[in-house]
């Protein structure tokens, strides 16, 4: 298949199995992207990710602009070579990060001025600048700069931001096309980001307007899982499932936890990313098929069982809960590595099961069973 | 070969190549032992150590007694199974750690009372208790409890401590023999620890007295590289090379840096351990064949070269100095892992080169060349 083609292989209701082609290999969807914000998936070696079968990694334009700077990454041969990951990479524009700097940024039609969270220096992101940064980084898939709003924003504010994001999308496309012709280097795909909060009309307008701008190779869905109730998120996904072109991949940004992945896949989402598996891996919580497990729990002191008896990862194949607990109690780095590895494997494996279930028409029953077991017990501390 | 036999294969001057057999495999000597104080070599997975060809790992009785407790390790099947390292393991008695707690311990003929550095709880180590702890941990080679003194101790203090260590050695042996018969489990070897500071007469007496107690399977040399001048350390090693039985392995505790390994091997030392490669790996300093390299150095910002062009480790085969610098500047865990891996590989590789050189009678010239290059340039910050 040609770069950035998306082949639909099977479907069950809105859930679908597909394959998204990139210059660095294909991605079987629905897929979970491990997050490598600063050109490293925290506590994991790229060889671990390869061995886990990670299909694609996400890095962050904002963070890499600040450290080490896109000039450094470009000089070292681009992100793939820099971080020694030869599979597909997607970069976020950094819109989410910039707009999270509440007291440190000022939005205008031109762009957004902000202060670096690293050294307080003043920076200015425009749609064009963000394309330049992501061109220099060289990920396979890149995102437009979007105006991100808080989860509780009114319809008025959501529309205002969404319409600005659409104007920025047109500027992003112009910059993208211009730099493509100028450089003639590795092909990249630019995705628009659909915003609009939980407001159906705004989301619908945004999806239709974005789709009218160009024949995008995929669409990102932003601004969800930011505090709204789950039914609100599911309603937006249902709406966008109808509004977005069926023959293009949909990427749900920053989502999520196992239940979100299943509910998202059920609504036609193809790509997900979330820091949860590695963040939880560093703080001592493991996903298991029976819920979350707090590895510091004193009850595990002599527990010879693996994190999850159903898991086939190399952590579970080798180490007892008692040993992993010891590593966390003693603040040993190996603990962060082993739990991150398990948690990423857990979500990759979940997506693999989902693909199999969709392909065989068993997704609905599989997902009900899976979620019932997952919610049956949770030993995570409150 | 039978467990704990030591076969001498080649020699050049006092330097020798040997093989030390253990219930978990043989160790080609001279050998460097990576330090896994708390049943984990910091920032490395046991699979990494296997891939690096690490011949033996050191863990620590004091630290493991406090966390997670030797009862936990024993219940989980012993150290090898607990930490998933099926190669040889050596445990230190914890004497060095206890005597480092200057204001927190009190020595008597019976043993040493101290306060846990973890929770301040009162503990009492006797020679017998320390044997029990190490029996529970189940390492292949274990150490007696010794009375460790500061590097600047007088001959009088050194003799007093050394003589106490010898009396404790006899009690250790009795406890060791008694528990061996009682348990009938995995064979272990107990090493005496030769103390005596930099005082030749005390060292000589200690070596002769210890050797007279039993037919030990090896000897540990303690109390060196604790602040004394290098020539003083070398003089003690020269002395002990003559005084200790030639047909038994000598283990120089807590030493050392590359130059120490070479100078030690030249004086008939067979086993070394040191936290330096992993500690430096976490703080951002890499061993290279041309000296130490501070990876945070701003001059490396765009440096596409590996840490050491001569190195064959998987860090150097893949990553640029610029990328590694970025990881350290951004406090990314992968940096600690990759530098630790490189530094451990560096010392393992150094010992491999030393064995080859000794076997071919080229050790003297090889070591001179190696040290000259190593001292030719150092970019580590002061």
Number of helices of chain A: 15
Oligomer: homodimer
Let me know the number of strands of chain A. 17
The overall pLDDT average of chain A reads 95
* Largest interface: chains, residues each: A-B, 38 and 38 residues
**Biggest sheet of chain A, in brief?**
9 strands, parallel
What is the strand arrangement across the widest sheet of chain A?
11-10-6-5-4-15-14-13-12
Strand pairing plus helix content of chain A: what structural class? alpha/beta
What is Rg of chain A?
20 Å
Strand content of chain A: 15-25%
Principal-axes geometry of chain A comes out as globular
Instruction: Tell me the distance between the termini of chain A.
Output: 47 Å
Outline the low-pLDDT stretches of chain A.
none
Helix content of chain A: 40-55%
Describe this entry's structure for a reader.
The structure is a homodimer of 382-residue chains. Chain A is α/β, with parallel strands linked by helices. Helices cover 44% and strands 18% of the residues of chain A. Chain A is built from 15 helices and 17 strands. A 9-stranded parallel sheet of chain A has the order 11-10-6-5-4-15-14-13-12. In chain A, strand 8 (112-115) and strand 9 form a beta hairpin. In chain A, helix 7 (155-183) runs parallel beside helix 8, helix 8 (200-213) packs parallel to helix 9 (230-243) and helix 10 packs parallel to helix 14. The longest helix of chain A is centred in the middle third of the chain and has 29 residues, at 155-183. Chain A starts with 5 loop residues before the first strand and ends in an 8-residue tail after the last helix. The mean pLDDT of chain A is 95. Chain A binds chain B through residues 38-40, 42-45, 47, 67-68, 72, 75-77, 82-84, 282, 301-302, 304, 314, 318-320, 322-323, 325-327, 329-330, 332-334, 336-338, and chain B through 38-40, 42-45, 47, 67-68, 72, 75-77, 82-84, 282, 301-302, 304, 314, 318-320, 322-323, 325-327, 329-330, 332-334, 336-338.
